[in-house]
Amino acid sequence: MMMNSFKTSKGGEEYISSLTNDEMGAQEECNTIIAPLMNKYDSLVTSVDRMLDEIEPFETSEYCIYRVPERIRKINEEAYNPSVISIGPFHHGDERFRSMDVFKKRYFKKVVRRDGGVHLKNYIEFLKYCEASIRQCYSEIIEMDSDEFVTMMLVDGCFIIELLLRTYYTDFRDANHSILSAISLSNDIRRDLLLLENQIPFFVLEGIFNLAMTTFEPLPLLDLTLYFFEDYNGQKKTPADFISIKHFTDLILILHRPTSQRQVKEFKNTSSAIELNEAGVKFTMGSSNCLLDIKFSDGVLEIPCITLYDNTESLIRNLMALELCHYPSDSYMIDYFFFMDFLINTPKDVDLLIQNGIIENWLGDSKQVTDLFNNINKNCVIIDGNFYFSALSEELNAYCKVPRHKWKATLKHNYFNSPWRTASTFAAIVLLVLTFIQTVCSILGAAKGN
Questions:
Q1: pTM score, two decimals?
Q2: Exposed, middle or buried by CB within 10 Å (0-12, 13-18, 19+), for 353?
Q3: CA 263 to CA 339: how far, in whole Å?
Q4: Could you tell me the pLDDT band of residue 367, with boundaries at 50, 70 and 90?
Q5: DSSP for residue 203
Q6: Cβ count within 10 A of residue 431
């Protein structure tokens, strides 16, 4: 047959060889009908193929600045939005920040026009050279042309550099600093500089800083940054404790991390503070400055004090959002607030922790604190087998299963919880013993008389 001379795969050869001339004719006729239809869609094929070529590679390894996931953001949008100043592209151009843009430009001018600094051209050359790397730090494509993007980075970066310098060096300050250093505005600026969506890469700040400080030799940029955020550095970490910093949110997250290594264990939860207390667990304020340094030994649960201010929730939520997006296997803050959520179910749990110095509440009543801890982990996840407090939870659960611990706690709570209650309990015991002795003596006397 004519078709037997074609080279085909084994399966195709068997199929073609089995066709008769009539069948082959029918197939050729079918191809004649289909061919025009295929040509009809050539333009669409070309268009889709062009679209595929335009799609950029999914280079997640470079991302470090993220839009907060919608499922997290919708719980409390204000916690993630800047209130007075925008930094970086995500909130750039927002009309709410026009007044602060004036101060940003004044600080920018101070940096680039300061005596001894390099020419403006050098700053722009640096940012143009790094532009592709900077853009890759953001989790979405930034719809800004090159000049607008570089200008934004330069103004925002210089503002931050000047702010850090003026915070540390009094010689750099002027009337503008007096306005920005007002307590309420200063706190708002510091709060906004910690938001995940309000960041520029730290290497951009370092590049601008090195160009601006060619003649003046201040402290290194990291030292100035740690000084600016010293209220968050309870562990007193130094530049030597940092391998790399991606941006300010990342820096604050590192400041809160423990020094101990994570142990891979199955996820375990535990009972509420009241339930643990009724089972014999005693609560005390830990001496460590690291929130995650929670210890349990000999029936005593030692938890470092956490202070809750108005801006605390915003800070916590942004640190947790960074962990969700960038450190899913090292989610220390998420794990901490899951553990605290186990402990806190009602305002009574909060009251117990406040009484023992574990929570310092500046929010209002205990109900607000309860709501904070019960809602802050909504839509967050923990990777199974990677919960930082699994071993601690196991120890607590094992302790609570021992009956004598609960009996001892019940006895203490009901009969020895105050000096007066203790005295009355001892008096009752003495009276009982005396009554028992009197009864025994009466019985023995009666028996002897008989």
A1: 0.80
A2: buried
A3: 16
A4: very high
A5: H
A6: 10
The answer to whether 308 touches 369, Cβ cutoff 8 Å, is: yes
C-beta separation of 382 from 310 below 8 A = no
Pull the structure tokens for residue 212. Answer: 């601006």
**DSSP, res 138:** B
Angle at 273 between CA 355 and CA 357, to 5 degrees: 25
Distance in angstroms (rounded) separating the CA atoms of residues 367 and 372: 9
Tokens in use for 247?
């941006």
- Other CB atoms within 10 A of residue 73 CB: 18
Write the pLDDT tens digit of every residue in 301-329.
999 999 999 999 999 999 999 999 999 98
Cα dihedral across residues 34, 39, 44, 50: positive or negative: positive
Measured distance between the N- and C-terminal CA atoms of the chain, rounded to whole angstroms:
134
19 membership: H or E segment, kind and range:
none
Residue with tokens 């939005």: 81
Which residues on adjacent β-strands are paired with residue 308? 361
H-assigned helices in 309-359: 312-326, 332-343, 347-355
357 in the Ramachandran plot: left (φ > 0), alpha (ψ -120 to 50) or beta?
Answer: left
202 by Cβ neighbours in 10 Å (0-12 / 13-18 / 19+) ranks as buried
Alpha-carbon distance 8 to 400, whole Å? Answer: 74
CA distance 235 to 237: 6
Burial of 397 (0-12, 13-18, 19+ CB in 10 A): middle
Within 10 Å of residue 136's Cβ, how many Cβ atoms?
A: 16
